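This section describes the prediction task in plain terms. A model, or a person checking by hand, is given the sequence of a single protein chain and must write out its three-dimensional structure as a string of tokens. No templates, partner chains or ligands are provided. The sample shown here is typical of the held-out split.
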Amino acid sequence: MLPNQMHPSSFINMMNELIFLVEEAPEGGYTARALGVSIFTQAETEKELKANVREATECFYGDEQAPQLFAFTSFAMKF
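The expected answer:
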């Protein structure tokens, strides 16, 4: 690998921010799915969801430095 190339996992570890797609769950509560990283969690309230996002992120990264900045987004489309 050339010096100016990096392994995709190295790029993920260098990110300072994670973006989560938040949706209302059909059975109630909320779900949050990270974009570009395999992190998913759910909760009954928005406050619980934020705490669960932090916990799930720390579990995903383990001993590596986890991002400390989270962005939450949601969208709805009607057809």
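For orientation: The mean pLDDT is 81.
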